[in-house]
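request received
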Amino acid sequence: MADLSIDFAGIKSPNPFWLASAPPTDKEYNVRRAFEAGWGGVVWKTLGAEGPPVVNVNGPRYGAIYGADRRLLGLNNIELITDRPLQTNLDEIAAVKRDFPDRAMVVSIMVPCEEQAWRDILPRVEDTGADGIELNFGCPHGMSERGMGSAVGQVPEYIQMVTEWCKQYGALPVIVKLTPNITDIRKPAAAAAAGGADAVSLINTINSITSVDLDDFAPEPTIDGKGSHGGYCGPAVKPIALSMVSEIARAEATRGLPISGIGGITTWRDAAEYIALSCGSVQVCTAAMTYGFGIIKELTAGLERYMDEKGYADIEAFRGRAVPNVTDWQHLNLEYVTKARIDPDLCIACGRCYAACEDTSHQAIAVSPAREFSVIDAECVACNLCVDVCPVEDCITMERLEAGTVDPRTGRTVRAEPADWTTHPNNPGSPTYAGAKVAEPAE
Amino acid sequence: MTDHFRRDGVIAGRLSSETLAENFSDLHPALTPHEAVVAADRCYFCYDAPCITACPTAIDIPLFIRQIQAGQPEAAAGTIFEQNVMGGMCARVCPVETLCQEACVREAAEGKPVEIGRLQRFATDAMMARGEHPFERAPSTGKRVAVVGAGPAGLSAAHRLALRGHDVTVHDANPKPGGLNEYGIAAYKTPEGFAQAEVDWLLRIGGIEILHERALGRDITLSGLRTEYDAVFLGMGLTGVGALGLEGEDLAGTENAVDFIATLRQQDDLTALPIGRHVVVIGGGMTAVDAAVQAKLLGAEDVTIAYRRGRDRMPASRWEQDLAASKGVKLMFDVAPVALHGEGRLREVELAYLSDMEPTGETVRLRADQLFRAIGQRLEAVEGLDLSGGKIAVTGAGRTSLDGVWAGGDCASGGEDLTVTAVAEGRDAAEDIHAALTGGAVARTGALVGEPLRGIDGPPHGEVPHPGTHG
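response:
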């Protein structure tokens, strides 16, 4: 049976599934129940500096985007960091860690960008027996207006500076949680690495307005007629998070830096994808907030079954295996020529492939009077849109043309040897450039 | 069960009023808003959708379902009504299992079609509940059109004619409008006075006057109508009922299924409606099923439908057959009545077993204190009109052999005898009448009738050359 346990930047956990820093990890009651349910670890909801606790709004904190049958696809929140007294949280963290010594107890922290503020809080967190800290440089609403959260995460110099303080004044592993509300995720990740971070975690939530009330003309969630952008998470953000994770995994400055993957993890498969892109742990929030802690049984059992079937003895056996396959567009093989194939036995003749191709793509699907749909190879550019809109799984597939065959669209013979844009004759930078070279100006 | 349940004879009060109320409640309860959205989400918005082709009125079904998805059932209703002004009734009585829902690609894929009928009801109910009528009459043309019959064909024609600016007078034989919607369909398919509510809603277009208890051939003549009006549309249905031609057909307890259904539909207190303990229905169409099921729901102990052909030939759909079976009706196939036994009152029906419509020589006697004939209706003769297959012969959009006279619905040749077909034929004849009276071209049916419903036809499509090599 596969071993799900992890050692993530020195933080040990019986499985890679942690509850992300959020409402589910705001207090002892929840975290105890999560651990009893089987969660491998938690990142305790973000602690602020000593003093009067933060204040939350008293109206709606969440807004949602739904799929069919109100399946929650995206969640937006405007909740701030913990609004409970610091000492209460610290006492509870210590109590839970004492009773669940094998679980990962990571404490999220957000205090002002002042050295003293960090010097004050770090030892108090360490005293709880926690296994690590996560620096909340990601929260995009409320706290960011006060110079914290994503306001720090958007300035690589601040990230490096605070990370250095945490390494200097604390002994615990430091995970830097990154905001996706930036242009290039590699920059803040590199800053964290430069500051000595033991790991990064991402993504935090994305600036969002879920909808606009068309009677009151107010953004949702609406507080007395007004709304403020919140942070977006849930299944809808997973593709964005996967891409950002992959960028950090393959960037030179951050290669090998442990990553805790966050963003829309709902089933074991999502988690396995993050791990394949090199994540050493994964954090879950929206799925737990939608379905409760019980999903951990599916997550662990599912991941274990997948690993057993694949023969992966432990997480390290497949962690990061997708990273080498993430590349730049210019390196994609242009001799990989495929054509859509419609299986007439599976086709239910809805015609969505036809409408999509005919109206919005390459007019490469033919329909017979008997409502039989087929692909016109001479037009098909293999865009895959028909596959994406087909409601029947595996009804439309992409079939590769064998080397030596002629692509009826281009008239070119497909070659066995891969060839990409870097050597393409249409590329001005290619040694085989076929276009007219710009003449050197005459002396 | 009350004591009356096991008493022989045709008697009232077999079941309590509570049980009857439950039995005759809505066959397909309305979808809740959430159910409607979930059901609507299943629609694939097919290209050139087969459901539209399968609908006799060619409602743009994927569009109206998308409008429900988008939170505007009233807009969805607009899409429905522009093609089928009786979309509310059709949502209730259409045999969707042999029309749109049979054609649904999800029926082929998983045996579970999108619930088009119930979604259509959700949409039409939403608009009618808001009291909206999405049509506006065109300026008056000064033309007067007579419509005979206030059933689905006649009312559909009347509405479209009024929309086009003509003044319409509907002559109907019955005291109430609606035709078969009011008198001829099982009560549980259209409860709570929906048929009359729909007529009231439809008449809000204005320009339609209904004259009641004026039957063609009895109170009015076709030649009189042709003289008095600029055009005539005949939509009086089939009012003649066939006899079995058996001895004993005059025994008490022997009656026409359509009369039983009409009486039931007009009965305010169903505990006062007599029904037999043992009931036999002769026939195999929707009327047979409606009569049989309602007999069972009224408290008949056993009800048998006797049909002369095999199950696969039965005009009532498999869904209707299963409905009957689920209510406890027994279905007998390949049998025909050969004798009715009794003295003064019917006691037994003797059926002969058939093989390919030929008697096998074997017979069986069923206890029966009531028998309903449901072997089809026929046209009562109309002066001067050519007939085809026992119906008024029509060509094109309902043109009869007489100038200025159109016909549609069950009385006209062609098409299935369905409410939705009658609505389509009435609509199309009205457009043809409009064109004839105004010298214009026939409007594309299915064209937008408004803004969304107030205008005229959409702009013609320009031909764009196809970029592909396949042209």
